[in-house]
Amino acid sequence: MPWDNSNSYPFNQDQILWNAPKRSGVYGLYSSEKCVFIGESNTIQETLATLFAGSNSEITRNNPTTFIYELSSEKYRKARRDELIAELNPLLR
User: Fold this and answer.
1) In total, how many domains does the chain have?
2) Which pLDDT belongs to residue 1?
3) Which pLDDT value is given to residue 3?
4) Within a domain: residue 44?
5) Whole-prediction pTM value?
């Protein structure tokens, strides 16, 4: 597992509020076992909630069912996102 945090959660509003932190880090969205998208954010919870609400039609079309995240400081999160993209080859970039 390439993620530092091995827990994944259903991609729905309740799980985002209960499990996604209001902190800086990297997140991934999955549909079944396929990686749909990997992003980075100052506030993971807020970004995931916005994506769940349909702010990105490409992501919505791929129907993500789970999310995963790992905390990372602003200084390192873009590099960590790029590492995960290279390793996991998400459908969307």
Assistant:
1) 1
2) 58
3) 94
4) yes
5) 0.95
What are residue 40's phi and psi, to 5 degrees?
Answer: -135, 155
CA-based nearest residue to 13, from 50, 57, 56:
50
Each residue's pLDDT tens digit, 35-71: 999 999 999 999 999 999 999 999 999 999 999 999 9
Buried b / exposed e across 34-53, counting CB within 10 Å, b at 16+? ebbbbbbbeebbebbeebbe
Token reading at 46 = 């807020």
Cβ contacts of 74 within 8 Å, gap of 6 or more: 24, 42
The 3 state secondary structure assigned to the chain is: CCCCCCCEEECCHHHHHHHCCCCCEEEEEEECCEEEEEEEECCHHHHHHHHHCCCCHHHHHCCCCEEEEEECCHHHHHHHHHHHHHHHCCCCC
Longest dimension (CA), the chain: 31
Read off the CATH number of the domain in which 48 is found: 3.40.1440.10
